[in-house]
Amino acid sequence: MTLKSTGLQQWTLRFKQHKTTILLFVTQSQSFTSIKQDLLDAIKATGLKDINGNELPSNSENIVFGLPVDKNDIGKGWVNLELPEVEDGDTKGKGVKKGSILNESPLGAGLKDGAMLAFKFRPADAEEDGMDVDNEWDVIIPSYEDEGGSQSQR
Asked: How high is the mean pLDDT in each 10-residue block of the chain (154 residues)?
């Protein structure tokens, strides 16, 4: 059964950490759990053991995704893609109801084909709820000035 026969659309998502960019083909309704495993498998397939000193996790559950604060100005930073889940009736702007589609898939999260996401690795001793993961994202976006400077130094 092909993607066309199922009516699912295949998207390319760009995952960034430090100077590394990984392109993955995903379906718009593929779970983020599955995407995290695909990302980890792709990194391991290259033979990398770490990215900029950040050791690869043994489990894809220790991968955290981030979205740009402003997709038109990546320099403004990143926010955690996964919103904390709260009990019914307790959504005072601090999360989403349990079972929300926002945390399930690229389509549910409002992403589009070609979207850019940051990723980082949760420390092995971090709490399961992910609330203790720092809000720092190691993403370096090349600029035109970087290119010009390296050419003029030759």
From this structure: 63 95 95 96 95 94 94 90 66 51 81 95 69 75 65 44
CA distance 51 to 87: 36
Three-class SS of 80-134: ECCCCEECCCCCCCCCEECCCHHHCCCCCCCCCCCCEEEEEECCCCCCCCCCCCC
Distance from C-alpha of 91 to C-alpha of 150, rounded to nearest angstrom: 49
CA nearest to 57, candidates 105, 85, 28, 17: 17
pTM: 0.77
